[in-house]
Amino acid sequence: MKKQNKKWAVFCIAGIMILTIAACGNRNKSDSKLTTFEKEDEKVVILFSPMEKTRPDADNIARSASEKTVIMAEEKLGLTVDYITYTAEDYQDKTYDDVALDRARNNMDDLYLLNPDTIQILAAEDKLMDLSELDSAKNLRDLVKAANVVDGKLVAIPQEVVAYGLFINKDMFDQYQLELPETPEDFLECCRVLKENGVETPIGANRWWLETFVLAQAYADLYNGGNTEAEIAALNSGEKKYSEYMRPGFEFLKELIDRGYIDAEKAYVSEAIEGEGTDFLEQKTPIVMAYWSAANAETAYGKPDFNMLVIGFPSSRGQMPVIPMTGIAIGVNAEHAEDARKVLDIMTSDEALQVYVETNKVISPSKNIEVDCIPALKPLNDKINQNVFVLGSNASMKVEQWGNTCIIVRKLLTGATVDECMAEFDRLQEESLK
């Protein structure tokens, strides 16, 4: 029972938050932020994951959710999960992804909590174990498989499906008699009214998540028009260009920046939630973008002093959730590979995921488990239950989406033109066709 009291400061969707915070960026500093948590037990599995940067010692239901599943695995298997963590201090530090890539390539750990772009990179290098034969893999939703099956191998399994949406201060929208936006045009009009009524910057943004606007507009039809496989095949063959899909979203972001609805300079150097969270909670900025669990976590937006709603991003098909897929992976040459497989199988079993979902109120990767979400998340959850969403990561696409789009959006934030951004997508596509 002593394990019930151990300090768990990593494994959570706040961990997912740090993952998606660290989805791309500068690659120029040492791994000085590494922290090791070790135990003296003889039978050990080593996990590499992010430390929550914002208030790491605060109570967090997401952290508690993962702790329960780890304890379940430890007690059933009679071993200990040791963990090593890393978090970047600011935009000049090496990202979590950079460190994870290095550690996985050098077989330094057994289990890794990975971002979608890192999953695809390591899978292409044959650095990740095929998890298809795990019992827990049989229960996965199709969208999880679409994101994490590379060349026929299931290379990562998440503990939750991470859905992104727009967090709206509904009280401020009601104050200015604004309807919740469905289309890009609706959204621009909301921002115009807010700006004219003294809201200096209607949209709080950071250097990681603006790609959600782009992806929602780029792929609303691809994922919801009934022709997904054929369209992806056309992209992979070069018959269609990624830039053709991306251009409207980048033009939309450029307009938001040019009109002063987004502060590009601040966004470029801001960490997620730390950069825009205070202004949102103090009701200076009525719109931010974040992941599902931020609505539950007290370290994020779990206790606002106003009526908050989480909706999808504006698109030609209305409000559109964006779902990238993180996951827990095992190094193909992991020192404790067999024990790591057993740990992961228990952590992602329906039994463990039921505990995780009941604690954390998130979307489960298991098709057998439903979420009972808080009222603020109901608009986003309703869309997902209707199978209306865009995948932010898809392993069947030859050009990785989540990380690459993030990086190219950051070029836009520092003054690149839309045409220059589209040329970068064309370059990536040409490389994928070689």
- Which percent band covers the strand fraction? 5-15%
**Helix segment count?**
17
Order of strands, widest sheet: 1-3-2-4-12
Regions with little confidence, pLDDT below 50 for 5+ residues: 1-32, 52-62
Fold blueprint:
Elements: H1 13-21, E1 35-37, E2 44-50, H2 61-77, E3 80-86, H3 96-105, E4 111-114, H4 116-124, H5 142-148, E5 149-150, E6 153-154, E7 164-169, H6 170-175, H7 184-196, E8 203-204, H8 211-224, H9 228-237, H10 242-258, H11 264-269, H12 277-281, E9 287-291, E10 308-311, E11 322-323, E12 327-330, H13 337-347, H14 350-360, H15 378-385, E13 390-391, H16 402-413, H17 418-433
Parallel strand pairs: 2-3, 2-4, 8-9, 11-13
Antiparallel strand pairs: 1-3, 4-12, 5-6, 7-9, 7-10
